[in-house]
Structures are given as structure tokens and as C-alpha cells.
Design a protein that fits this description.
Keywords: Amino-acid transport, ATP-binding, Nucleotide-binding, Transport. The protein is of the alpha/beta class and 234 residues long. The chain contains 10 helices and 10 strands. It folds into 2 domains: 159 residues, Rossmann fold; 67 residues, no CATH class. Strand 7, helix 7 and strand 8 form a beta-alpha-beta unit. The structure holds adenosine-5'-triphosphate.
Length: 234
């Protein structure tokens, strides 16, 4: 479904991605784990077209999307949930969610999507008339995923959904990510919380200073000595 071939991304002279290869098959949850500054967010932003790579190719659903604009990539079904939640504080939760569907022309589809989001996150339904700015951190993360689902993704890119959240909230959100996957959406998950990410993923990549250093199924990565030492607390 998605293939990155030898992707290089730079910020000025700094090479943040130094030739990475990643592939994702339909139906998978794939995770990229790595420390601070490894290039995880850069990888997602490169895939979603927010930053353009200086070399390499990105193929999505058999199309070369390397040079596509970000909104065209969203319309194709590749949707990113950004790190930091970016909810409009002075619009209601309902209004904010509707904005997520701005590319979906079919009104019936929009209301179906809204129903699906409220089914996954009943808390958002309860709060639909509240202003975005009043949501707690966990609710904002739910909202961010919900808004991305409103644009009808085939592949969802998640950037650090566990960031700043209490463990119980993280568990809830990761369970919902699994539910979304079981309902047919393929997922690429970027996380510093390697344990949680590998516990729901099928496969994973380890990213270190802009290079993929390891690639395996999640079970093997969880029991890999290097991964345990570096990312799972020994
Ligand atoms: P974190 O979990 O801390 O967000 P990350 O793995 O997502 O880390 P990136 O944010 O992708 O890492 O950063 C990769 C490298 O690129 C880092 O060295 C970072 O300092 C650098 N970088 C990121 N954004 C910019 C930018 N806008 N301008 C210059 N350098 C940047």
C-alpha cells in the first residue's frame, strides 16, 4: 500500500532522513520507534507531503505521490494525525470534527463518519457542544484521531498518540487504534513509547539518527536485546 524508497529529507544542511526504506501492507499496524530527534516526525511529514524529500520515492496505492501536494495526498486517503493536537479552541467539538471532513463532498458520508467517530469515542459525543479549548489532554488526542477519521483514511499516520497522557488514557487510546485497524484502516504509528507501540503493531522499524537500523515483526522486536536495552528499559 505504501512504499518509501531511499528517502532523504533535509532541513537546510541538516540531513534528517538519510535514505530510508519502509513498506506497509494493507491491513497492517506498523510502528516506527526511536529516540528524540531520530527523525520519526520528519518521516511522517515527508509521507504526508508536509515536507518534500530531496531524494527518493514514495508510492501509495501504486501511485508515485512523491511530488504531490499535501491536500491531494489527504484526498487519496492518506491522513496524518499530527503531534500536538491542533484543535480550534473557540469552535465546538462538533464544528472541529466537521472541519476534518472538508474534502468529503458527500453529506451522507460525513454524517456516517461522524457517527463512527462518536461510536469509537463516546466521550466526544458527550462533549460535542463544548468548545475545543475545554477538552482534557486525553480528549484532545481522541479528537485528533476522530478528526482524521472524518476525512475517510485508508492509511492513518499517527504521531506520538501517547505523548503527555496518563497510562490509563494511553491504554484506552491504543485499544481504539486497534479497533480502527480491525475495521479496515491501515496504520503507521510513530512512538517513543516503544512498549505500547510494539504491543499493538504487527511489524516495526527502529529509526536512529535518520537511518533504519532494524526491521522485524513486533514480537521479535519486543524480545530483541538491543531494542530492550535502548527502548524498553532493559
Ligand atoms: P521527537 O520525538 O523529539 O519529535 P523525532 O524522532 O520525531 O523526535 P524529528 O522531529 O523528525 O525527530 O527530527 C529529526 C531531526 O531533524 C532532529 O535532529 C531535529 O533537530 C531536526 N529537525 C526537525 N525539525 C526541524 C526543523 N524544522 N528545522 C531544522 N531541523 C529540524
Amino acid at each position: 500500500m505504501l512504499k518509501l524508497k531511499n528517502i532523504h529529507t533535509k532541513y537546510g544542511h541538516i540531513e534528517a532522513l538519510k535514505g530510508i526504506d519502509i513498506h506497509i501492507k494493507e491491513g497492517e499496524i506498523v510502528t516506527i520507534i526511536g529516540g528524540n530527534g531520530a527523525g520519526k516526525t520528519t518521516t511522517l511529514n515527508t509521507i504526508s507531503g508536509i515536507i518534500k524529500p530531496v531524494a527518493g520515492e514514495i508510492h501509495f496505492l501504486n501511485k508515485d505521490i512523491t511530488h504531490w501536494k499535501a491536500d491531494k495526498i489527504v484526498a487519496e486517503g492518506l491522513v496524518q494525525v499530527p503531534e500536538g493536537r491542533q484543535i480550534f479552541p473557540n469552535l465546538t467539538v462538533y464544528e472541529n470534527l466537521q472541519l476534518g471532513a472538508y474534502l468529503v463532498k458527500d453529506k451522507l458520508k460525513v454524517s456516517e463518519k461522524l457517527e463512527y467517530v462518536y461510536y469509537l469515542f463516546p466521550r466526544l459525543k458527550e462533549r460535542e457542544k463544548q468548545l475545543g479549548g475545554t477538552l482534557s489532554g486525553g480528549e484532545q488526542q481522541m479528537f485528533a484521531i476522530g478528526r482524521a477519521l472524518m476525512s475517510d483514511p485508508v492509511l492513518l499516520l499517527l504521531d506520538e498518540p501517547s505523548l503527555g497522557l496518563a497510562p490509563i488514557v494511553v491504554q484506552n487510546i491504543f485499544k481504539i487504534i486497534q479497533d480502527i485497524n480491525k475495521k479496515g484502516t491501515t496504520i503507521l504509528l510513530v512512538e517513543q513509547n516503544a512498549h505500547m507501540a510494539l504491543s499493538i503493531a504487527h511489524r516495526g522499524y527502529v529509526l536512529e539518527t535518520g537511518k533504519i537500523t532494524l526491521e522485524d515483526n513486533a514480537k521479535n522486536l519486543l524480545s530483541n536485546d538491543e531494542v530492550r536495552k535502548a527502548y524498553l528499559g532493559g
